[in-house]
Amino acid sequence: MVDLNADLGEGYGTWTLGDDAAMLAVVTSANIACGFHAGDPATLLRTCREAVAAGVRIGAQVGYHDLVGFGRRFVDVTAEDLTADVIYQIGALDGLARAAGGRVSYVKPHGALYNTIVRHEAQAQAVVDAVTAYDASLPVLGLPGSEFLRRAETAGLRAVPEAFADRAYTPEGTLVSRREPGAVLHDVEEVARRVLQLVTDRTVTAVDGSEVVVDAASVCLHGDTPAAVDMALSVRELLQRHGIEPAPFA
Question: How far apart are CA 183 and CA 168, in angstroms?
Fold first, then answer.
């Protein structure tokens, strides 16, 4: 079995992004925005309600306080402030999730914060400290081999390694920057084949053609990628044809 997750609840007011309802019919875990990089309270409450109705686990997708940049710009925030920001975000979404009949089941950093704490020791520890302070039973999603997951394990958190269906990989096993051409994949069939390879062989083909080992328990399907729903459906159907049933890790 493997978990399929997607970034959801990323609209704001009258501005919508992606088809959350359609994605919730496919994925097993929903990384729901917490208001810092996207998502207003009404949007987040609605998304939590839809996730609960669909039987999908709710994850708090915490990020930098960067609504204009969609959380994809590095912020040189102090560790103390980042810890407080992350606690604030988890608590806000957990309140909405509980009002919807569910709860936050895990935490996943978003965008630039996710990539920064692959190597940034102080910010990685700040996020770990926030999760530990709020609820040390919450698992965390992160890049395999990252400083974040290493420190999460040291702190006694359940560290869940994740792979990305629609993102290109470097030979070092990190994600190609979105500033680079080809960083995001758009071919539906190619994405489905990559996920099958990830799940069955624990490898992914990097941009230089080499095979990189990626041992992941969850696969992310970005909800804002063009043809995201088609990709998600194709991935799930191909996995099921090979006897692999998507199931939540939390």
Answer: 5
Look up tokens 């996920």; give the residue. Answer: 195
Q: Tell me the three state secondary structure of residue 141.
A: strand
For residue 177, give the amino acid letter.
S
CA distance 138 to 159: 9
CA 32 from chain centre, in angstroms, equals 9
Q: What is the pTM of this model?
A: 0.95
120-127: long-range contacts (C-beta < 8 A, 24 or more apart)? 120/147, 121/147, 121/151, 122/79, 123/77, 123/79, 123/82, 124/148, 124/151, 125/79, 125/151, 126/79, 126/80, 126/82, 126/83, 126/86, 127/62, 127/82, 127/83, 127/86
Residue 125: strand, helix, or coil: helix
Q: Which two tokens stand for residue 63?
A: 């990020």
What six digits make up the tokens of 53?
């109705």
Q: pLDDT category, 225, cuts 50, 70, 90?
A: confident
6-36 confidence digits (pLDDT tens): 999 999 999 998 899 999 999 999 999 999 9
Query: At residue 188, what is the residue type?
Result: V
Residues facing residue 59 across a β-bridge: 31, 106
